[in-house]
Amino acid sequence: MRFKFFILIGLFITLYGCNDDETQLKIEGEYTGTFERNGNTSGVELSLQNGTFSGQSETVKFPAICSGTYMVTNSAITFTNECPWTAEFDWSLILNGEWDYEYDNGTLIMTNSTGDKYILEKQ
């Protein structure tokens, strides 16, 4: 009986892990779009490839996008910024941390807990 239980647990973990991998592959690509905070917007470009990201914004440090790694789970993308930044701006504008996301037909929408939002179209 215990053996069957462990097999079921292993199968569940395998299926759950595949979902994340498939989702990550689906959202990989080059994106353009906008970033919005409190009614202010800026054009952005973002590249998501093989667990790494890079990008830029048309407005300097609004948002602050450089490069780093990302990981996709069922409902969130977690970014880890790997660039050094200077202290003269609001560091909450750095693309970093956990973002809830929706992906549909090439449109990636990401929001964080403070209400910041990216609306991106796959190129």
From TrEMBL:
<protein>
    <recommendedName>
        <fullName>META domain-containing protein</fullName>
    </recommendedName>
</protein>
